[in-house]
What does this fold into?
Amino acid sequence: MEGTYKTVRALERGLEILFELNKIGRATPAQLSKATGIDRTTTYRLLHTLAAQGLVGRSPAEDSFYLLRDTRRLSDGFIETDQVLWLAGVELGKMLLKVQWPSDYATFDRGTMLIQETTHRFSSLSVHRNMVGRRRTLFSSALGRAVLAGATDSEREMILQITESSLGRPAPRNIDSLLEDFHQRGYTWSVGGSEGHISAIALPIKGKDRVVGAVNIVFFRRASTPEEIAEKHLDSLKSCVAAIEAGITKTAEDTRSLHGPTPESS
Amino acid sequence: MEGTYKTVRALERGLEILFELNKIGRATPAQLSKATGIDRTTTYRLLHTLAAQGLVGRSPAEDSFYLLRDTRRLSDGFIETDQVLWLAGVELGKMLLKVQWPSDYATFDRGTMLIQETTHRFSSLSVHRNMVGRRRTLFSSALGRAVLAGATDSEREMILQITESSLGRPAPRNIDSLLEDFHQRGYTWSVGGSEGHISAIALPIKGKDRVVGAVNIVFFRRASTPEEIAEKHLDSLKSCVAAIEAGITKTAEDTRSLHGPTPESS
DNA sequence: CAAAACTGTGCACTTAATGCACAAATCTGT
DNA sequence: ACAGATTTGTGCATTAAGTGCACAGTTTTG
It folds into this structure.
């Protein structure tokens, strides 16, 4: 990412052939060579390498290669939320430039909020590091409260059920005051949170039809109050959330196009 | 495929990293290096190459890499029928050894039968070549008749509608006699087909809940009759079809397992 | 049946992938 | 808060490994 690096050509070319095969659906080595501009024999050998990996197969009758089921091994590990992760990281970075305080992006995961991305490392106003992977409670953290506030009624019910079953104890059901507070203020908050000296405000991130996660701004309890921070930085937080949400709907829109093999008839 | 070739290592290694990333979901260069056994700096550079292609992204905050949506470009071109294609090619090859006559595997595609795989090239009893991509009619070819015969009622209705709309003329609706003939004989047939001197018998290939295509045996009209060929080779044809169908259900069964990223909590 | 196109493989060339080495940054434990 | 341990990023020399030419064999075209 830093200095644009010298890339590995053999890998690039192999991938290029895979891309091409995905477009065409079926092709001979010569066709692929023409399409990619890679020398024919090189194409041939790259195809063999791909075949050895079980990614492409060759028709026993025709000379053409095509994709095999195992190509899924290259992409099945991808999950939608990863895309959001990238976005969140970028936007959090931008926000840090305006707001000095660090912030986290977290998702609801099995009863608690799982921090997925953070700018703690880059903020001079943070003592924490290694935030990613840590968890915050659903009820007492600003992040958790934001998710609860951003959820639809049915979604919230599901979240509460999951939380109860994974925590093994009943969840506090006085959510109403929390929701009211959120609608009044426009954000959720917590004071003296996880370690007694940390406070935060947070907003939910909403996807197409569900709450994806939440983003917060973290500050020292003795340094300021939620109200003061909100006054100064809520707009930044809001536009950060908006940017992430925009990215989500954008990636959701571009429906992946499957193109079947449509050889020309004679 | 022939002599196991010298594979391209750089490509293999890059793919290995992608595989690993698909398993783990999220990893630092060092982790990937350990997991794959590839030198750390090499791993690092391969990751950069993958990143340059837009396949993986790197968290701006954390050091870990993860997959991006574009990994789908590596596999979206794959279609289920391709898997069948490979199978069909192999099985047709096997059948050719027993039955001297050439045979084709074809699928229904926009109103006609599209030949996808063939052993014409390898049969000494064929004058044709370049069969793949050619088309046979739905009503007068053994292949087409086999698909009609193998379809369920609702499926057949769909096939007929598609055919009518793409041919622009009404389809013959006297299918009943065809079906009756099929159930009586156990195969479909055509005499003096596409070019006057070619005959064939055929069987449908059925997938989980739909007709996938059909396989035929082709012979010279003056050399034999459908009845004679069926007597000699229908068993071979049947076991060929059975092998392909077995392969289809097998690949359909192995449901692809998606594994989400489940980072450990602190 | 001759010409053109394509496939498969050996081989020589030198590009380009690789891993070591080192500096810088980051994390960990006390 | 500080020192040791771990990890990251990059330059560079080495040579392994990717690449394309050449040629023989096969297939397709006209």
